[in-house]
Amino acid sequence: MERIVGGEGVELAVERVGAGPPVLMLHGSGGGTHSWRAVAEQLADRYEMWLPARRHHSPSGDGAGRHTFARETADVRALLDAAAGPGRTPVHLVGGSAGATVALHAAAADPAGIASLTVYEPPLHASGPRLGPVLERYRATDDPDAAARIFALEVAGAPPALVEAMPPAPPEVARRSLHAQGHELEAFAADDGDPARFAGITVPVLLMQGAETWDPVPAVLDRLAAALPHAHRAVLPGQSHFATATAPELVAARLAGFLAEVDGAERLSPPRAR
């Protein structure tokens, strides 16, 4: 486990797997360095996979004040610079769920050194003033299971039947998620979720989703595809929002194909003016 200093001096814990061109993978709400590991291991023979724990997610630090996407963008920039190394190798940026939203913000704010962007079901619908009262109720409960239900139903918009079927998390995991998702909600509530803001992202983008995911995620991806000038789509059959856990081989195969295509195009393109 390594430590990278992010924005405002926040320490970010990072695991690295494999060797090759760097790939930085951002996990979703309540996740950690483990969240992308099953996918990363499928690609470690070709790429150096960087697996950080985002701020507010153990064992990374917190920082002071309310959580914002701008603060996480600074963290991502520090991680990109570390992954690029002294040779300034372009980095493939990947995000899942809330990590996908962070990746979009980071690529829009500062695309320097980003070779490509892959996002799996960014929950842009989880945004805006409607989440203010949700955040208040979330903060008011000290029951991690009740908080998890609030987050799943009222923030992520997961189907009630799916939420009811989810087993309770172990107490320590639930406690860490309660902390992390509360901060996540702060950023969501202050954001407008408009995909049009990302129209300036000009690197190749892969938009991934599960064929069985819940509404309004497919509509969000449609709007993103319309906004982004170089967007590709990948719909994974039989999968929902959790494909990185339920079908890591499938996710890895689609991601590997996209990265190889981007890397091949980069090698064939004329040298960039410096």
From TrEMBL:
<keyword id="KW-0378">Hydrolase</keyword>
<dbReference type="Pfam" id="PF00561">
    <property type="entry name" value="Abhydrolase_1"/>
</dbReference>
<dbReference type="InterPro" id="IPR029058">
    <property type="entry name" value="AB_hydrolase_fold"/>
</dbReference>
<protein>
    <submittedName>
        <fullName>Pimeloyl-ACP methyl ester carboxylesterase</fullName>
    </submittedName>
</protein>
<dbReference type="InterPro" id="IPR000073">
    <property type="entry name" value="AB_hydrolase_1"/>
</dbReference>
<feature type="domain" description="AB hydrolase-1">
    <location>
        <begin position="21"/>
        <end position="243"/>
    </location>
</feature>
<dbReference type="GO" id="GO:0016020">
    <property type="term" value="C:membrane"/>
</dbReference>
<dbReference type="InterPro" id="IPR050266">
    <property type="entry name" value="AB_hydrolase_sf"/>
</dbReference>
<dbReference type="GO" id="GO:0016787">
    <property type="term" value="F:hydrolase activity"/>
</dbReference>
